[in-house]
Amino acid sequence: MDESSIRLKVQKELSPRRFQHVCGVVQMAEELAKRFGSDVEKARLAAWIHDFAREWPVERLTQTAKESGVDPSFFEVKELLHGPIAAANAPEWFGIEDEDVRNAVRYHTSGRPGMSLLEKIVCLADAIEPGRSYPGVEQLRQIAEHDLEEALARQMDGTIQFLIKCNQPIFPLTVLARNELWEQVQ
Ligand code: DGI
Ligand code: FE
Ligand code: FE
Ligand code: FE
Known about the structure:
This protein has about 190 residues and is an all-alpha fold. The chain is about 65% helix and about 0% strand. It has a domain at about 5-130: Hypothetical protein af1432 (Orthogonal Bundle). It has ten helices and no strands. The chain binds 2'-deoxyguanosine-5'-diphosphate (DGI) and fe (iii) ion (FE) (3 copies). One fe (iii) ion binds near residues 21, 51 and 126.
């Protein structure tokens, strides 16, 4: 499937607001891929499909995740399921077989230890695309000008702090990813 067909399929699945976010992630992922020397085509593809299942009701998410063989650990936090579902079905839905692209989609919300360059780029692009506005995003964008790992480590710190404030569970892979990223910075 070519990129414009994928774009159209994604647009049909999402609200205008969410599609606007996805377009921002594509733009940001391309920018980061050029800056840090990753594959621009793969970054754009991962960004296009990363939130395909983001607006599905939770029953459809859990049902499809089961049918798609998504790793059971992801079921602990329902907000994480949309990435693994898109990754699992990417060959069938979009003709995307590439493992790095699919891992970037699979782990775009949680991160994981041992993230590839592409995985880091998609995860960070999701958080700092031009449409995002939350306290601290401007600082993250500035750090992302020169240090991918530091920007992503700080972004994950922000997510973890937010989850703690809201008494939400923290997915273990996020903690492991965050710890490893700070090691890569220092
Ligand atoms: O899909 P997006 O809204 O563009 O962004 P996302 O996929 O990064 O995040 C989806 C949601 O998941 C967001 O509201 C925060 C939440 N989230 C991320 N990491 C964790 C989490 N929720 C819990 N409970 N635990 C996590 O570790
Ligand atoms: Fe997402
Ligand atoms: Fe993210
Ligand atoms: Fe997103």
